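Lecture notes, unit on protein representations.

Consider one protein chain, 346 amino acids long.
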Amino acid sequence: MLQNKPSRSLSHHTKITDYMKKFIETNYKESIPSSMKQSRQNKQNKSIDKTSNVYKVELPNVQQNVCLKQRQYNKQEKERELLILKALQKYHHPCILELRHHFMNNNQTNMVFDFMPLNLAQVIQGYKSKNREIPLILIKSFAFQLLRAIIQLHECQICHRNIQPENILINDITFELKLADFSQAKFLFEGEESINNVNNVRYRAPELLLGALKYNNSIDLWAYGCIIYEMYTLNIAFEGNTQEEVMAEIIKILGVPKKHELLSMKSIFEDIKMPQIKKKEWEFNETIDFIKQFIKYTPNYRGKAKQYLNHSYFKDVLSGQIRLNGRELPNIKNFQPIELEILGLD
């Protein structure tokens, strides 16, 4: 992994925060200098989001890097993402990338975040290229931190709708994880219609693949299960470039969805003909058994994110005494009130 100094929180350093605002607004309000345009070509700094430009900004005279995201929005999109980011600011959740500052330039939104050196896709690829498995305790730590982020979102009635490895940021020194990119996030309420072409198709829940316009937060849990599988096997759970290809891969694992499952997914296709594919059997071990909780056709059978926080799968993480290569994994005692309540520690 790349060796970078861990980012420090700007929220606790008023002078740095004030300096950051002034520097960013002064230097980047009108245009990005050519040097910054060149840095955008660095794969590490370039966003997977094709509608955004994301830059690593080095603040002169301050040993602090920040991330500047520039994006063109229509009015509705702009208000929604900023509203969600501002709603999350008051929680200062350690597993969610927090908006530090924002300013507008014509129809362009400029958002400033703490800089994180890697994303989970790069971590997975790094282990895969070396033909090494990700240590199980690290998988559990990452899964636990990601779950904490999802719980906070769902408690706020926010569905992320774009949980994929590229949007999960990692500090490879501290092993801290932060969920990022709320460009597709939405305050989601039961029974309302929403677009279904959200998230990368490989992490898209089957109800979305089948055209459902009324869905719930459990689509995030489907993606969550896919990500744990990918960390565990170093392979994408449901590989494919089209909805049809991904659905075929899902059927290989779950079988052809039954009528009651199609109804539960609110599929718009009443008489859809499913490919007759021989179903594979799950292998059995602790991690696969946990993943199976989320890889289910019936959305409500995936449960609620908060019910898994004290799952036995995380007993090692919750012990608070875990280390990797001699280094402690992230402090898991910085719980939010809702998490303390779930764990019975309030």
